[in-house]
């Protein structure tokens, strides 16, 4: 793998990734900023963020294969890495069927997309794959630098590491709420988590992890929300993030929920040093 992500990064919607956010993330010691929300097109925001920093890596989490073809993304990749070698990781994935017309045979579509990136000269070590289930995790290990699982737990991280083996990157995302009031924190976490409970790929993965249909019903059980959006004081949340590292993650992308994520990132940066 070319890019060096460090152990901890920030995950946020790509529209929030400004030069100032990138500079702040680097100053706080985060190794990477992950651009969520299916960024596409020419990925111009990546150049802007990297130009404002010296060592930070920007990773896409993820470019949706149904949205932009490999030629367009390959051209963006070449432009970025030519200017900022070793500081960009192209994360790609199939998204979810509920948001995509023509979403059929996603595994075959992922293989074809990776073939297209090969044809565009995107090296294996400069791309990653959104992966939850065993089949796509194996594909990530075989055809990319590794896997970027989303909406998971340390138990999933442990299983994913067993499937990937010792070499490939494993970089899960983890939502957190820095609030010691459990009811208030769960309300914040549930607001985000509930969106995913209607999406078949996430539901299937959560059921594989041992959650039940009752946990996934409505807006999600407290048990489910507590696992997917860690909450508590800074030390408690930091311990939950370290649990992914202990389970085999190389890097954890933290998504702070709430009205003031910047203060959360500052607190966690200090706690996780």
Automatic annotation (TrEMBL):
SUPFAM superfamilies: Bacterial luciferase-like. The keyword Glycosyltransferase does not apply. InterPro entries: F420-G6PD/mer, Lucif-like_OxRdatse_MSMEG_4141, Luciferase-like_dom, Luciferase-like_sf. Pfam families: Bac_luciferase. Residues 19-101 form the Luciferase-like domain. Transmembrane segments: none annotated. Keywords: Oxidoreductase. This is LLM class F420-dependent oxidoreductase.
């Amino acid at each position: 793998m070319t890019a060096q992500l460090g152990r901890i990064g920030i995950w946020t919607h790509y529209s929030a990734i400004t030069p100032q956010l990138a500079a702040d993330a680097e100053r706080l010691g985060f190794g990477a900023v992950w651009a969520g929300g299916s960024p596409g097109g020419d990925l111009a925001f990546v150049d802007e963020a990297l130009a404002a920093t010296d060592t930070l890596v920007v990773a896409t989490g993820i470019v949706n294969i149904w949205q932009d073809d490999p030629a367009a993304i390959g051209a963006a990749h070449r432009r970025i890495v030519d200017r900022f070698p070793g500081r960009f990781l192209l994360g790609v994935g199939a998204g979810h069927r509920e948001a995509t017309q023509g979403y059929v045979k996603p595994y075959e579509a992922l293989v074809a997309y990776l073939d297209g990136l090969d044809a565009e000269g995107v090296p294996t070590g400069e791309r990653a794959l959104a992966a939850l289930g065993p089949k796509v995790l194996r594909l990530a290990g075989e055809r990319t630098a590794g896997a970027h699982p989303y909406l998971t737990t340390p138990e999933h991280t442990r299983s994913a590491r067993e499937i990937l083996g010792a070499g490939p990157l494993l970089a899960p995302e983890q939502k957190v709420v820095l609030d010691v009031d459990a009811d208030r924190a769960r309300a914040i976490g549930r607001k985000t988590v509930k969106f995913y409970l209607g999406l078949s790929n996430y539901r299937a993965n959560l059921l594989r992890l041992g959650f039940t249909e009752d946990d996934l019903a409505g807006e999600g059980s407290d048990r489910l929300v507590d696992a997917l959006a860690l909450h508590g004081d800074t030390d408690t949340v930091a311990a939950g993030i370290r649990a992914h590292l202990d389970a085999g993650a190389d890097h954890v992308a933290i998504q702070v929920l709430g009205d003031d994520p910047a203060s959360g990132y500052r607190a966690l940066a200090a706690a996780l040093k």
